[in-house]
Amino acid sequence: MPSLPARINWVPWLFSAPALAVFVSMLLTPLVLTGLLSLYVFDGMRGIQDTLTLHNFVEIFTDSYYLEIFTRTAAMSAGVTFICIAIGVPETLILSRMQGRWKSIFLLIVLAPLLISVIVRTLGWSILLGANGLINQTLLELGIVDKPIRMVFTMTGVTIAMVHVMVPFMIMSVWATIQKLDPQIEQASLSLGASRLKTFFQVILPQLLPGILSGSIIVFALSASAFATPALLGGRKLKVVATAAYDEFLSTLNWPLGAAIVIVLLVANIIVIIGCNRWVENRFRAVFEG
Amino acid sequence: MQRNGPLALLFHTLFIIFILAPLVIVIVVSFTDKGYISMPKDGLSLRWFYAILDAKEIIRAFWFSVKLGLAASCIAMVLAIPAALAISRYRFRGREAIQAFFLSPLMIPQVVLGAAFLRFFNIAGLSGSFFWLMMTHVIVIVPYALRMVIAAATGMNREIEHAGLSLGASPAKVFVRITLPLLSAGIAGGWLLSFIQSFDELTMTVFVATPGTLTLPVAMYNHITHTIDPLVTSISAVLIFGTLILMLIMDRVVGLEKVLVGKG
Q: Which of A132, A188, A257, B151 gets the most CB atoms within 10 Å of its CB?
């Protein structure tokens, strides 16, 4: 045994051992098994074949059916992220300017949906957006439209509901950054004669950028793997990666292909999260250390 | 500090309406007396709330989810408390790797976990068992439990422990009589948060749930893909009220802002 300069402290390892054992057997093993599964080929007649190949990955990256699903998912996630920035950042600023009780009350109202089941929230949206839903009824009664607008099973409907599910994450992230801001900088800018608009874009926004970016990473990653909302509001036609994987596993029963889809999703997710985090950290080192 | 102008307040009002609208509509619609989704125009009715009591499948799934959530959150705490102490109190090689490993289920999409558990259960022949379904929930909720306990342990005043030791208490006694009580708020908060996360989990569970191990979210998902009737709205209304009560408790115990905004 090589002599170590410092004695290994076994206590923390002993403390972590139970959790480590569970995580290795129940997390690492299933993931490795799924990775292996993605290398097999499924034959409609004979089931899973015993040869290792990259066939499934080739299929995902060349078949237009799967390309469309991945592109749709990426586009939807980008759209949701963009809208979350556009409405979440102003709302967080407004919240931060509120006084005393109102501030905590509204912060709770905005964040509390995080703890309410996604199914319940999606159900609410499908009732609101349906052909006989509240929004269509109101539009009809006001005479703005003469027949109901189709919103369920459209990208618009899915996006609206996804933004509702995701925007609290953006607010949480921007809120954490706002807490560190010095309100006097804004005062200084205004008292030195900059307009409100200029102060916002040149003084406030740059300071919020780290929070916005880390919020965007969370929102994008979660949207890209969202299941319940696209499944219930998008239906069969608007498949996204998560619902496609679900169908491969539980309807088509092409498990190897399903495994390849989730592996691509996992790797893309990790690349986005780690890549963006690195970039944000390098770009804003000064802000984090300041 | 700038004040909010009228435009900002208008935006804020619309935003709050956007946030509350789907929840409010579910609650309002659940009081209908009709057999289909509609506003309760002809007076409120509790018809669909009584109907829950006759929905055997839903009641069974509800109790199953409660049991699953209680068991999974307790196991998660048993795993997370010592791990959190190791991570927050010791500086050792591999500390960061261990922490990242324990938090990794937050970064892995739940569909991926679902598919992985399905494959694992299939190979190991574990489908349809309460215990193994619970273990999948443990993996998903340990990160939440861990973060809460780490946050509590990091902010803890350790002098009291030293005082206990120097006054002659055994390390075990110090742990039970001083450390655990000081961590209790973090533990309670982590436990409640874990329970809610387990109780609400759908995406991963939908892969591994079997007819015999049906959780409430999976049962509701199956129901909604089949038909949207007032029954699911009354169940949802009950869930919203239940979550509100749990949130009030959590607010009393640790402060809801700390759970939602606080960082671990």
A: A257
- Choose among A15, A104, A113: nearest Cβ to B86: A15
Q: What is the pLDDT of residues B92-122, one digit of tens each?
A: 888 999 999 999 998 899 999 999 999 999 9
Using one digit for the tens of pLDDT, what is the confidence trace for B187-235? 988 898 899 999 999 999 999 999 999 999 999 999 998 888 889 999 9
* Contacts for A68 with CB less than 8 Å, ≥ 6 apart: none
Please indicate, yes or no, if residue B215 is contained in any of the structural domains.
yes
Task: For residue B214, give its domain range.
Answer: 55-260
Quick check: is B224 in a domain? yes
Q: Do B11 and A94 contact (CB within 8 A), yes or no?
A: yes
Confidence of residue B264 (pLDDT cuts 50, 70, 90): very low
Q: Are B164 and B177 in contact (CB under 8 A)?
A: yes
Interchain proximity A127–B37, CB inside 8 Å: yes
Residue at A233 is within a domain: yes
Distance from CA of A244 to the nearest CA of B (A): 10
- Is the pTM value of this prediction over 0.90? no
User: Does A254 map to a domain?
Assistant: yes
Q: Which of B183, B1, B116 is nearest to A187 (CA)?
A: B1
- The CA distance from A64 to the nearest CA of chain B, in Å, is 22
pLDDT at residue A1, as a whole number: 44
Asked if A110 is an interface residue toward chain B (Cβ–Cβ < 8 A), one would say yes
Number of structural domains in chain A: 1
pLDDT digit string, tens, across residues A38-92: 998 887 667 777 778 888 899 889 999 999 999 999 999 999 999 999 999 999 9
**Mean pLDDT of the residues in chain B:** 89
Q: Distance between CA atoms of B216 and B63, rounded to whole angstroms?
A: 8
Mean pLDDT of B59-83: 96
Q: Distance, in angstroms, between A164 CA and closest chain B CA?
A: 6
Distances from the Cα of A193 to the Cαs of A196, A203, B8, in angstroms? 9, 13, 22
Please tell me if residue A152 touches chain B, with a CB cutoff of 8 Å.
no
CATH code where residue A121 lies: 1.10.3720.10
Is A181 inside any structural domain?
yes
pLDDT at A54: 87
Assigned domain for A173 exists: yes
Average pLDDT, chain A: 86
Name the residue range of residue A129's domain.
Answer: 47-289
